[in-house]
Design brief:
Blueprint lengths: L3 H4 L4 H22 L18 E14 L2 E14 L3 E5 L6 H9 L7 E12 L2 E4 L5 H10 L1 E4 L3 H4 L6 H13 L5 H14 L5 H5 L8 H13 L5 E5 L7 H18 L2 E5 L3 H7 L2 E6 L2 E7 H6 L4 H8 L49 E2 L5 E2 L9 H7 L7 H6 L1 H7 L1
Parallel strand pairs: 3-8, 3-9, 6-7, 7-8
Antiparallel strand pairs: 1-2, 1-4, 4-5, 9-10, 10-12, 11-12
Helix pairs in contact: 6-7, 7-9, 9-10, 11-16
């Protein structure tokens, strides 16, 4: 078999060498996770801003495969303020779900590992660095401080247990000390009623297959909110739901967030959902944050060429086009990422300087940050000359924000 450099394939010898090296690296990391009686000084820290519920600081989460190291999250930094919704957008494979799973410490180990960086979780009096927090402490934080609404309710709910038993288990594990089974079931019924399930006692006796997609999604939300967490991760909560049910679920999430003053990390492909729900928006591409800011800044003043492409590809009611815009090219191989800007080979606004190292962050305002050479002072004139009538128009996309919002 030829060498990988020639035709993209690995020889058996190369695969064995990579596998051996992966076992060595992940073995050392697993020793850290399996330690007992870890002193608090190793995982208790301080927030950079006490008004934040979560702070991601230069997070690196990798998967060690037989083909090489997949850098799914490669230096991600953003904040989730208390009581706010942060929308995370980007195409499939950009690292959205891996970022959220890192916060929950649910990466598939030993292959999946948090390699470096910090995830600071503000739990009232204590601040935890999730990247170093031992398993026994995480078991207390999951459900109580942070919880997750998983992407597909049919595969997330256990098909052989009744709905009530599955919600009971969550409450018994986290808040069940000293409570009778009747008290736990009463709390389960209250949680189901909280998410708008009318016949809650009847639904509690049903199996997942007896419920519609929207009802199963409501059950997943009830399980996530049963213990009143401070941070809710909603991983595409409206996937595969019809428009009417989608609107109900979004209204429900917004109402519950305000009622318990929680923060939401909303992961979705749908820019309409983001326009409707999010206070802040983080745009990810190939494991990195390319742009972040308030929802108003991202929709009215999109700055990174990738963000512009996402905006242009959204169908909008009332706007007639012959065909939807599609970002050309494809995402680079996550195992062998280029040394320059990851979006360069797909970018219609690239400059001559884009062959350099990965661009650092440029602050356009106190809250608006973008990683692009076009906003370097020394390249602004070239960027202005480079923009022509055949490229995406920022003003045209920004003007459609209200239409996108209405379409949600």
């Amino acid at each position: 078999m030829a060498n990988k450099k020639e035709n993209g394939y690995l020889t058996s010898k190369e695969i064995r060498a990579i596998s051996k090296e992966n076992r060595r690296i992940t073995g050392e990391m697993e020793k850290k996770w399996k330690r007992k009686n870890v002193p608090e000084s190793e995982y208790i820290t301080k927030m950079r801003d006490p008004q934040n519920a979560v702070e991601f600081d230069d997070l690196h989460s990798y998967f060690y495969t037989d083909s090489g190291v997949v850098k799914s999250v490669d230096g991600v930094s953003f904040d989730v303020p208390i009581g706010k919704t942060v929308g995370i957008v980007g195409e499939s494979g950009c690292g959205k779900s891996v970022t959220s799973l890192s916060l929950m410490q649910l990466l598939q180990r030993p292959q999946g590992q948090i390699v470096s960086g910090e995830i600071r979780l503000n739990r009232g009096g204590k601040v935890y660095n999730i990247a170093n927090t031992p398993q026994e402490i995480m078991q207390d934080l999951r459900g109580n401080a942070i919880s997750m609404i998983f992407q597909e309710p049919m595969t997330s709910l256990n098909p052989v247990f009744r709905i009530g038993d599955q919600v009971d288990e969550v409450i018994a594990l986290h808040e069940g000390k000293g409570k009778s089974k009747e008290e736990i079931r009463r709390q389960t019924i209250e949680a189901l009623e909280l998410v708008g399930i009318a016949n809650s006692e009847g639904v509690a006796k049903m199996f997942p297959h007896e419920l519609s997609g929207g009802m199963r999604q409501r059950v997943m939300i009830a399980m996530a909110l049963a213990c009143h967490p401070r941070v809710i991760i909603a991983d595409e909560p409206t996937t595969a739901l019809d428009v009417t049910i989608q609107a109900q679920i979004l209204d429900l999430l917004r109402d519950l967030k305000d009622r318990i003053n929680a923060s939401i990390m909303l992961i979705t492909h749908d820019l309409g959902v983001i326009a409707e729900m999010a206070d802040y928006v983080v745009v990810m591409y190939a494991g990195r944050v390319v742009e972040k800011g308030t929802a108003e800044e991202i929709f009215y003043h999109p700055s990174h060429p990738y963000t512009l492409g996402l905006m242009a590809s959204k169908p909008v009611v009332g706007r007639k086009v012959s065909e939807l815009y599609s970002i050309p090219g494809k995402v680079p191989n996550p195992i062998n990422m280029p040394d320059y800007c990851y979006f360069r080979d797909r970018c219609e606004l690239k400059l001559g300087c884009c062959d350099g190292e990965y661009p650092h962050e440029i602050r356009l305002s106190d809250t608006h940050v973008v990683s692009c050479y076009r906003y370097y002072e020394e390249h602004k004139d070239e960027a202005k000359m480079n923009t022509n009538s055949n490229l995406i128009k920022t003003a045209e996309i920004a003007a459609s924000r209200e239409e996108v919002k209405e379409d949600a």
